[in-house]
Specification:
Layout (H helix, E strand, L loop, with lengths): L8 H10 L6 H27 L2 H18 L2 H17 L5 H22 L2
């Protein structure tokens, strides 16, 4: 059984196809925005969890889910979606481990995206 890559190659190819012939400048820009913004959103999730700000937490999780989906960061997207749904449906209790999982999945995706951006 093949191991699933952290980044969906089809999503990367779809982004490349949006600006063919630009030497991947658009793709690199999108990756850069994701790598810069996602740690800020994760920090926001931690702050919201500490402050018990459920609506803001849910919005931040939704934002991460969307941007991860655009780049094909499958596991980041899946964990962000879990955080979004659980915070919306059950509140913020018990999300610490899932938030840690999100940070770990982001670190894995970041490493892969940096490789893609450097090619």
């Amino acid at each position: 059984m093949a191991t699933e890559t952290p980044i969906d190659p089809e999503a990367i190819e779809n982004l490349r196809a949006l600006n063919p012939g630009d030497d991947n400048a658009f793709l690199k820009e999108i990756i850069g925005i994701f790598l810069e913004d996602t740690p800020l959103r994760i920090a926001e999730l931690n702050e919201c969890l500490a402050a018990f700000d459920q609506p803001k937490f849910t919005r931040a999780a939704h934002s991460i889910k969307g941007s991860a989906s655009n780049l094909g960061a499958r596991k980041v997207r899946a964990v962000a979606e879990q955080l979004e749904h659980q915070s919306r449906n059950s509140g913020l209790n018990g999300l610490d481990q899932l938030l840690l999982s999100l940070s770990n999945e982001f670190a894995t995706a970041k490493s892969e995206l940096e490789k893609i951006a450097s090619t």
